[in-house]
């Protein structure tokens, strides 16, 4: 099991990969993270997380099997200072 | 087994009820999670070890000791010191667990007993099966109502985990959904566990030889996610694997303590989220390491384990634990 941290929109991983958990930490504003099944933002949206409170964290765990991303993982991250940690296998 | 000691960690002074419950003839190593002057306990059988004392005894290894501070894993210092000073058995007791007068005697009796054993078709034994709830550390995927089977088994008891009344050791998220019973309902006899059991570090006794392989894991981070409240459940999973390698027995049941504590459910839920999420992955990770471990002394098995862990954890979310595992090996080389 591995982890990667991103603070901007862009490609996260090549596929296939299973995302087991996501931790979204907001910065000075509310934040959101959308993970889609692609390397360029053109894939099916698999995970959407929002954190309304400033400087707070939201943790989502997707079970032992996680969520499968066949083509890759692309993150669209919004909110000033937001950070998204992706834990995968 | 005629030199028992009680090891207790604490970041504030225990209640007078707790202090009074400790027998005067049993030495107590009290590991203070704070500097000298934080509090004192004036009893002849108590010796308090503040940060300054820990630094002095750990020498160069104090540099990496900070990872254990501000958590239950600070009790590792007391376990090591008890081992170093030749105590046997070592009884680990939290400062909010009030004991009865036969507490030490009961632990020793169990460590000398030939207990029946218990196993479950899920591979996990539930020490709270008699009241139908599952304790902290019990994997959610294994929470099924199943018949536990009792049978005879050979081996020596090397670790006994006592249970708790009043505030049971449950996950915060379970406290929200059930009306938590006030008694563990255990009537005995103590049972030796075949397979796995969620280990709770509040009340247990172990033979001195286990100490080099019994590490309460420190808090750590997976990026911004803090992993907490796993010190005993994950550390206990590892020691049980070592015991199975050698055919030694892990029992649970009596003596039962009165867990006199408050609980902040919301805080527990937050603190336990990461641990609950990744426990089963961690257990699988450990199982794979143990496929390559051969039975030896506990000290030598820990050396093999630390080498294999370091190699396997590299680049994974468990890599931050490597330092503590190697540190524990080095600590037992101080003679």
Question: How many distinct beta strands of chain A?
Answer: 9
Examine the secondary-structure arrangement and name the CATH architecture of chain A.
Sandwich
Largest sheet of chain A: 5 strands, antiparallel
- What is the percent of helical residues of chain A? under 10%
Tally of separate helices of chain A: 0
Report the largest inter-chain contact.
A-B, 17 and 17 residues
Percentage beta strand of chain A: over 45%
What does this structure look like?
The complex is a heterodimer of chains A (89) and B (335). With 89 residues, chain A is an all-beta fold. Chain A has a single domain (2-88), classed as Jelly Rolls (Sandwich), CATH 2.60.120. Helices cover 0% and strands 60% of the residues of chain A. In chain A, a hairpin with an 8-residue loop joins strand 4 (31-36) and strand 5. The termini of chain A are close together. With 335 residues, chain B is of the alpha/beta class. Helix content of chain B is 32%, strand content 18%. Chain B has nine helices and 13 strands. Chain B has helices at residues 16-21, 51-58, 75-84, 103-111, 172-177, 231-246, 265-290, 298-313, 322-331; strands spanning 5-10, 28-32, 46-49, 90-93, 97-98, 117-119, 149-151, 157-166, 191-193, 203-206, 220-222, 225-227, 249-259. In chain B, helix 6 runs parallel beside helix 7 and helix 8 (298-313) packs antiparallel against helix 9 (322-331). The model of chain B has no long low-confidence stretch (mean pLDDT 95). Classes of the chains: A mainly beta (89), B alpha/beta (335). Chain A binds chain B through residues 1-5, 20-21, 23, 25, 57, 59, 61, 64, 83, 85, 87, 89, and chain B through 141, 222-225, 273-274, 276-278, 280-281, 285, 315-318.
């Amino acid at each position: 099991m591995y982890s990667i941290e991103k603070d901007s929109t862009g490609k996260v991983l090549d596929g296939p990969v299973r995302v087991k958990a996501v931790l979204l930490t907001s910065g000075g504003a509310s934040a959101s993270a959308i993970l889609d099944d692609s390397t360029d933002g053109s894939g099916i949206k698999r995970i959407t997380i929002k954190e309304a409170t400033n400087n707070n964290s939201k943790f989502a765990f997707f079970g032992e099997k996680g969520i499968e991303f066949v083509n890759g993982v692309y993150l669209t991250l919004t909110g000033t200072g937001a950070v998204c940690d992706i834990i995968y296998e | 087994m005629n030199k028992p000691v009680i090891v207790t960690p604490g970041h504030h002074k225990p209640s007078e009820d707790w202090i009074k419950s400790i027998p005067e003839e049993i030495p107590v190593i009290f590991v203070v999670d704070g500097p000298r002057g934080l509090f004192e306990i004036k009893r002849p059988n108590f010796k308090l070890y503040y940060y300054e004392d820990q630094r002095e005894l750990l020498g160069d290894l104090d540099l990496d000791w900070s990872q254990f501070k501000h958590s239950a894993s600070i009790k590792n210092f007391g376990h090591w010191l008890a081992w170093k000073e030749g105590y046997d058995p070592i009884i680990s007791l939290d400062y909010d667990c009030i004991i009865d007068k036969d507490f030490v005697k009961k632990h020793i009796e169990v460590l000398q007993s030939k207990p029946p054993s218990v196993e479950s078709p899920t591979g996990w034994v539930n020490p709270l099966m008699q009241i139908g709830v599952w304790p902290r550390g019990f994997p959610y995927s294994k929470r099924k109502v199943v018949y536990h089977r009792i049978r005879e088994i050979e081996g020596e008891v090397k670790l006994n985990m006592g249970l708790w009344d009043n505030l049971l050791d449950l996950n915060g998220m379970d406290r929200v959904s059930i009306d938590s019973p006030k008694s563990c309902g255990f009537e005995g006899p103590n049972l030796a566990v075949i397979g796995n059991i969620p280990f709770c570090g509040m009340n247990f006794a172990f033979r001195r030889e286990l100490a080099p392989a019994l590490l309460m894991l420190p808090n750590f981070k997976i990026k911004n996610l803090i992993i907490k409240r796993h010190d005993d459940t994950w550390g206990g999973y590892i020691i049980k694997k070592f015991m199975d390698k050698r055919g030694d027995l892990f029992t649970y049941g009596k003596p039962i303590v009165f867990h006199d504590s408050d609980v902040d459910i919301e805080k527990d839920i937050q603190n336990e989220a990461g641990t609950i999420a990744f426990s089963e992955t961690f257990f699988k990770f450990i199982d794979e390491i143990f496929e390559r471990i051969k039975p030896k002394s506990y000290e030598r098995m820990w050396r093999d384990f630390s080498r294999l862990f370091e190699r396997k954890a590299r680049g994974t979310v468990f890599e931050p634990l490597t330092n503590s595992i190697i540190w524990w090996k080095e600590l037992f080389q101080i003679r």
